[in-house]
Each structure stands twice: as C-alpha cells, then as structure tokens.
Amino acid sequence: MNKIYNIYEILYENYGPQGWWPITGYGYHKLDYNFPRDKNEIFEVCLGSILTQNTTFASVVKSLENLHVKNALNSHAIESMDINELKEAIKPSGYFNQKARYILEFVKFYNSLGGVIPSREALLNVLGIGEETADSILLYGYNQLQFKVDAYTKRILVELDFVDEKAKYGDIKALIESSLKKYVEDERELLKIYQEFHAIIVNHGKNFYSKRPYARGCFLKDFF
DNA sequence: AGCCAGGCTACCG
DNA sequence: CGGTAGCATGGC
Length: 224
Known about the structure:
Elements: H1 3-15, H2 39-51, H3 57-69, H4 75-79, H5 83-90, H6 96-113, H7 120-124, H8 131-141, H9 151-159, H10 169-183, H11 187-208
The protein binds a DNA duplex through residues 20, 48-50, 52-60, 62, 91-99, 102, 127-133, 136, 148, 150-152, 166, 198-199, 201-202, 205-206, 210-212.
C-alpha cells in the first residue's frame, strides 16, 4: 500500500510515457531513457530548466532555437556572449533581464565544473537556481535521483489531502522520494519513475489543475 | 481583457 | 522565519 506510487500508476496508465526532457531538434524520446547523450544536451537541459521558470516550454523552445541559429547553444559560446544579445535571444521566455543574468551566472559555474556532476547545494548557491530548477537540472540533465516538485505537484497533493497547503518544497519532495524509494528498489527503475512522474504530473496538471477551481474533472479524486 | 505559464530574488514585518 | 511584489513575453 503506497498511495504516492498508486498515483503514479494511475497517471501512467492514463497518459503513458512522456519522454522528458525534450531536446531541440530531436524532441521527446518516449521509452528511451538514454538522455542526455552528450555535454551539449546536458547543457541544453540546464538552460531549459532556467528558461522555463514560470513560462511555457513552447516559449523556451523559441529561445533555444534563437541561440541555436547563433551557434550559441553551448556553454562556452554563451559565456562570451554579449548580455544584450543574450537578452534578445531569450526574450520569448519572458523575464529576459533576470534570466540573462541567471544564465550568465550559471554558465560561469557550469564551465568551472569541468564535466563533474554538481551537488544540489552548489547549484542552489548559483543566483537564479532555486530548489525546483536545481532538481530539474539534476534529474533530467544528470540523471540523479532528485525528485522535481512543481506547483502542479503541490496542487494535486493538496487537493487529494496528502499534504497541507502550508507544505514547503522540501516536505513534498521528501514525501514523494521516501514513498517511491520504499516501493522501488532498483535505482535505474526508480530514476525512470522520477523522470516520468514529474512529467506526467505536469501533463495532468495542465488538464485539471491550471484553471480555477482546481481539480474539476480530475479522475484521481475517484481513487483517494 | 484577463488569467495563466514546467519560479526566483529582494525586501518587508 | 513567513509572506509578497516584481519580473515580461505569449497563448488562449
């Protein structure tokens, strides 16, 4: 009996594999978990994780395409890029003044890593990287066992009365991670579930937890 | 026209 | 500590 895992099962049965994180020029890669495939794809996930803050991913893709045509979808090109040129490229994603600064801060950090996987704590010390963005980078960019919580995750769990409205990011992350770890022993399988679960939550969230009042038509409510 | 989007920082009490 | 204004473009 593991209600968090039950939610995952029900949603996966309804939506199927999502294929996150999508890569530009390639797209979603359902049932293929061998991503990212190289350093540029890792970096692209990092960049997308920052750009998607409070924005639709369609807008992020436009920004990434803008960088791609400038031959600047890699960390070294961006590090030496003029900030105004960067702002112009990422404008479709919104908050372009802030995000340009965040990206330049991150790129300096990223290039200093020399390919080493960053710690969550180190990521959180970079301006513009909060908990969700850090987990996004680690989960989808580096295939680390860090569950990514987002606004939809909280709305759903609050609606199902699994967590309190006042629950913090870390509370929800800990609940989901501990529940799934108890149920799934194989780490490779666990990683796949972390990646699919968050993506599916976003899918489900867009359907039933976007417009108020939330949860109208949410079939999860029939189970819990 | 108004609300929402795959959040975070700075600043307030 | 917790709470909130500000950030900005784009889609519906």
